[in-house]
Every structure is written in structure tokens, then in C-alpha cells.
Design brief:
This is S-adenosyl-L-methionine-dependent methyltransferase. The protein is an alpha/beta fold and 308 residues long. The protein contains 11 helices and 7 strands. The protein has a single domain (81-306), classed as Vaccinia Virus protein VP39 (Rossmann fold, 3-Layer(aba) Sandwich), CATH 3.40.50. A hairpin with a 2-residue loop joins strand 6 (297-299) and strand 7. The chain is globular, with a radius of gyration of 35 Å.
């Protein structure tokens, strides 16, 4: 027996067990992924061979899009609420948006009076022949205009309708009435606390031309306003699209607008050939027509699509 209390035989058996443990440890270490990586001359290849972790599996599960027409890129709401009576549309919008009171009551407010002109009607392509052609053809009771600026085209369509048929036309003008970044470099509008008062000048123009009973502004973005109109069942016979001119804005406006078009109605817009955003408007119109199986009718700078 030695100084540790083990006999020589016990010492040899413990030594054997210790040696065996070392052998097992080394064999496990040498076959581990870490040692394999250390031995590998190309660590990248070795990493690629490791089983994917969860995030890799999630990424690899996203299959390539083969039928892009079924993706969220083109899936817009196509069915809106139950249509309300045309003669009830104005009352509904006044109740929903203006607490039942016309925004033209006691207009203009005192704070805006110093900055308003009696008539400052401006627009682009707002009196082209396409307006008279479509107003006479469709004889609309409700017109939806996306992008109104100072009301030039809305006032023109109201004037055409008044001289073309007997029934009253109701024109819904959707615009945020903020202009666009940098527009005051070209158009000198007074700014008060960040507001350029385009809405008030639009309303002043409508009031001066005696169309307060026919034209109603909806001062919201086109997408939010049309979503509400869709929910409320407000449809239009004629829709003019002339808001933002980049592809994605025009694409949304055309898709949402078409869902509000009555059967037999017409949707048209400006800047079909404008180069902005690589013909953003034209590309949006053409793509929509292809997806819906419609025919685009160019009319100068305007485009026309008819509902099926």
C-alpha cells in the first residue's frame, strides 16, 4: 500500500481508468465541429455544410414569386359597401366629415380673408376637350376628382354639366390641399404656421363661381378618402385621376378609384406621357389595363379607361 492508501493493484486500475477517460475525451474533441473547422483549409465551405439554424430555415422557406399577379403588389379591395342612393351622397359626406354643416357656411374665416383672392383658378390641362367629351357622354350625377389643387378642372366640369344636362351634378374633390414640397418656389402663396391655405383658396374659387352646392372638398389623402368612400358605398359615374404623378401613387389611385366606378362609368386622368418617375403615370395605367383586360384610350395628355 502506498502513501495515498491505495495498493499497487488499485493504483494500476485507477491509472488505467484515467488513461481510458483521456482517450475518450480526445476522440470526442477531435471529431467535434470546432476541431473540424480548425483543420479545414476553407472555413467558409465548412460553415456552409453545418445544419441551418432557425433563421436560415425561415429564409429558405420563402419561395420565389412565380405568379406575381396574386401578391400584395396588386391585391387591392375590389368590393365596396352597398351603394347608397346618389341623391344621398352629399348629405352622407357632410354628416361624416363636416358634422352635417357645409364647409361653405360663413366662409371665409377671418384669419384667411387677408390672403385670399376673389378668383385664383389655376390648373394644368384642366379645360381640355376630353372633359366636354366625357361629361356629355357619361352625363354623370357624381364625379370623383383625385387631385384638385385650386379647382380648375372641377369648376370646368361643373360648368359643362350645367350647360349639358338638367340634373344636378355632385363633384367630390379629394386633395390634401398642401401642394408638394417646394411648390412655393414657383407659386407664391402666403404661409401661416405651416399652412399655405390652398383649401381656402380652392373654396373661394368655388364660391366665386357659384358652385358651392355642386362641389365639396374632402381634404384628405387620396388613399384614405377612397377607403372611406368605399366603406360608405359612395360610387361615381366619372372619376378623374390627377394627384401624385409617381408610379406607386398613381398605381394606388387607379386601383382604388376603379373600385368606386359604377358599371358603365369612365375613369380618366392627366399626364399619361409625362416623363416624371420614368413615365410613372403611364406605366401605372398600362399595367392596370393589362391586369384588368381593359383598353387604354389616349386623348392628348389624358388617358381613358372604361369599366366593364
Amino acid at each position: 500500500m502506498n502513501m495515498f492508501g491505495f495498493s499497487n493493484g488499485g493504483k494500476r486500475s485507477h491509472g488505467f481508468l484515467l488513461l481510458l477517460a483521456v482517450v475518450f475525451f480526445l476522440s470526442g474533441f477531435l471529431t467535434s465541429p470546432l476541431v473540424s473547422l480548425l483543420k479545414c483549409s476553407s472555413p467558409v465551405k465548412q460553415l456552409e455544410s453545418l445544419p441551418p439554424i432557425r433563421i436560415h430555415k425561415a429564409a429558405s422557406a420563402l419561395d420565389p414569386i412565380t405568379d406575381w399577379s396574386l401578391t400584395d403588389l396588386v391585391l387591392f379591395r375590389t368590393k365596396c359597401g352597398e351603394p347608397i342612393r346618389q341623391e344621398d351622397a352629399k348629405t352622407l359626406l357632410l354628416n361624416k366629415v363636416f358634422d352635417g354643416i357645409s364647409p361653405f357656411v360663413e366662409f371665409p374665416p377671418e384669419l384667411a380673408k387677408p390672403y385670399l383672392r376673389e378668383k385664383r383658378i389655376r390648373g394644368w390641362g384642366s379645360t381640355g376637350a376630353v372633359f366636354a367629351r366625357l361629361v356629355e357622354e357619361v352625363k354623370p350625377k357624381i364625379i370623383l376628382e383625385l387631385g384638385s389643387y385650386l379647382g380648375a378642372s372641377a369648376i370646368h366640369m361643373a360648368t359643362l354639366a350645367k350647360s349639358t344636362f338638367d340634373h344636378q351634378v355632385f363633384i367630390i374633390c379629394v386633395d390634401d390641399f398642401r401642394g408638394w414640397p417646394g411648390f412655393r418656389d414657383k407659386f407664391k402663396f402666403h404661409q401661416t404656421n405651416g399652412d399655405v391655405q390652398l383649401l381656402y383658396q380652392f373654396m373661394q374659387n368655388v364660391q366665386t363661381m357659384n358652385f358651392t352646392g355642386n362641389i365639396l372638398p374632402l381634404p384628405f389623402s387620396t388613399t384614405s378618402a377612397m377607403s372611406a368612400l368605399c366603406e360608405w358605398g359612395v360610387y361615381a359615374d366619372l372619376i378623374e385621376v390627377d394627384a401624385a404623378h409617381d408610379f406607386h401613387s398613381a398605381w394606388a389611385d387607379i386601383n382604388l378609384g376603379y373600385s368606386l366606378l359604377k358599371p358603365g362609368g369612365v375613369m380618366f386622368g392627366h399626364d399619361y406621357y409625362t416623363k416624371l418617375d420614368n413615365r410613372g403615370v403611364g406605366r401605372a395605367v398600362d399595367l392596370f389595363a393589362r391586369l384588368k383586360g381593359l383598353r387604354v384610350e389616349p386623348d392628348g395628355q389624358h388617358w381613358i379607361l372604361r369599366s366593364k
